[in-house]
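U., I forgot to send this yesterday:
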Amino acid sequence: MLFLFYVSLVLLAFYVLLIGIYWMGWRAIKPFDNKTSSTNNKFSILVPARNEEHVITHCLQSIINQNYHATCYEVIVINDYSMDDTAGVVSEFIKQNTNYNIRLINMVDDGQQRKLKKAAITFAIEQALHPYIILTDADCTRGLNWLTTINNFVSEHKSKLIYAPVEFKADNTFEKIQSLEFAGLVGIGASAIQLKNPNMCSAANLIFEKEVFYAVGGYSGNDGIASGDDEFLLHKVFKCYPDYIHFLKHIDAVVSTTANASIQQLADQRKRWVSKSTKYENRYITAVMVGAYLFNFMVALQLIINVKFGLVLLLAKATIEGLFLFDVMRLFKRQKYLLFLPLAEPFHVLYVLIIGIWGNLGTYNWKDRKLN
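Result:
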């Protein structure tokens, strides 16, 4: 028991220090002042879509509503072997909006098993006309100044790759807990970039130069891994251009996506994310993930064998995470979601313990596609 007590203290110190460092990294990122640029850069906005007939119209409408010159961007929707009427819905949208450069391309089975999201993105980049690529998801929407803000940032910073913020839309308690947890992941990814040790980002709002994609070899070397179309590219670009990767810290750059409607959907999503955790070249990232997992495991164990001490560990975890999340949620103007932190913390401990193991075992389903 005494041994577990001291191990718990060591893991607590590690975790508080870890989140504290991320908190300092987040605060070190200067909010973008969003000065209007005289340069109108040209962007190819790529939207991989698989079975998205119910949401793709909202995504496309939010893109063409931008306060940005329509001649300076194109939208490429990649129909990734959809089993519903995604292609038909997009085709109809294109017919109704002929003033915009929107293209639908369909993935074709060429016998090479190009049936992962990375293949769809690569296929679209090959056909993209403009020097800057923006990746987003078919269930994402954004405000009117999203593209203008990206343009202003690119013009000022000459970035090779930009990670812009993503938020979960939330209506009920379950979704607000997810929104809190996901905001933490966004904050950690942004902080790690600021601290020159990038770990995670999201392809729901990722911007990079087309020529840089080819310069680093695209997804070569990890194209057979189901997820990681964002993070593996981030790590490759960082190796070559460590001073030209940035996080765009501004409310107008945010894209919003739908939170998971059920525990099963959440589990499948996070299992997909966690499945790449053993594939990172940078073992520091894996080591940090293992350390965080062990701390959460110890919290759960102490809650069973020594309830009072377990509650102390949980309170310490909630305190440091709450301080960090308060600053992150200020970007999204969602500080009131911190009221759900007492519910989110026990949920997070269980979620980490279960997904941390399950995510590296067996297969899972994602958009009617069986993956491993």
